[in-house]
């Protein structure tokens, strides 16, 4: 068994003796640019960086190779653009129609978008998108909708800073907006034996909204524990789905306030509340969404309580990695 490493993605896959690179990649779920499979279209071309490859009766140690013909003779490194790892989706730019900007309370607006017809949306529950501002800069927002909702996209935008006020005004006035998606490595995996543990601060609920909606649409029966925290009780915003989820009995919603003595419900920090409720994290898939400080505090607390690092996913781990 030989190893092929791709640049710039860093993707690695195995190739059997005598197997063509393209065949090996597709057998392992890797999505590759290809068309004719006989080396004529050149779509599957890659640059051999290291190693040795046999192609069309010749042994090559450098230069352009065609993955549909090339058979590795030793471990090799290829510079090959446009290759997607299993489960990875291509990033696309779309001009979306703005269907509405509805206030939900707590200075949060639900923004509803519709993608163009004829261009099916492809994203995983838990991913996010980028919205283009009027000045060309991009703003990141979790996708609150779920893939089964087709062309419809939902965002939860906290409108307190001047930049988000301007963005909301732009959406309301223009009626269309350019978005780029999908972004982020967080996604829903196969059902976990003990269910989902979802921990969200503020509008981090948007990401959890997508995860819950998707798991229910897929017919998963495992329990879902949703912890939603804010500083003041007035920071909670209204979502009809919460009541419906709680009524189902499968989703257990815990609303936690950290700095409001008048709140009659649970008070304290999110990670403290979770650790008070769980003595055993085995079999859970854990997702956290919030500021880097909140996510890392949650990670540290749950690790100390017995959770394994590989159980937890968060976008913070990618955009604000900790030393």
Distance, first to last CA: 35 Å
* DSSP strand content: 25-35%
User: Care to count the β-strands?
Assistant: 20
| Helical coverage, percent range | 10-25%
| Number of distinct helices | 7
Which overall shape is indicated by the principal axes computed on the Cα atoms?
Answer: globular
Poorly predicted sequence stretches spanning 5 or more consecutive residues: none
Order of helices and strands: EEHEEEEEEEEEEEHEEHEHEEHEHEH
CATH class designation of the largest domain = Alpha Beta
Please tell me the overall pLDDT: 93
Major sheet summary line: 6 strands, antiparallel
Q: What name does CATH use for the topology of the largest domain? A: Rossmann fold
Describe the fold and architecture.
The protein has 323 residues and is α/β, with parallel strands linked by helices. It has 3 domains: 2-79, Ubiquitin-like (UB roll) (Roll); 92-183, Elongation Factor Tu (Ef-tu), domain 3 (Beta Barrel), CATH 2.40.30; 195-319, 3-Layer(aba) Sandwich (Rossmann fold), CATH 3.40.50. 21% of the residues lie in helices and 34% in strands. The chain has 7 helices and 20 strands. The protein has helices spanning 21-27, 162-174, 205-217, 240-248, 270-277, 292-304, 316-319, and strands at 2-7, 12-15, 45-50, 53-55, 58-60, 63-66, 71-72, 76-79, 92-105, 108-114, 128-132, 138-142, 152-158, 176-183, 195-201, 224-230, 251-257, 266-267, 284-289, 312-313. The strands form 4 sheets. A 6-stranded antiparallel sheet has the order 12-11-14-9-10-13. It has a 6-stranded parallel sheet with strand order 18-17-16-15-19-20, sandwiched between helices. The chain is globular. The mean pLDDT is 93.
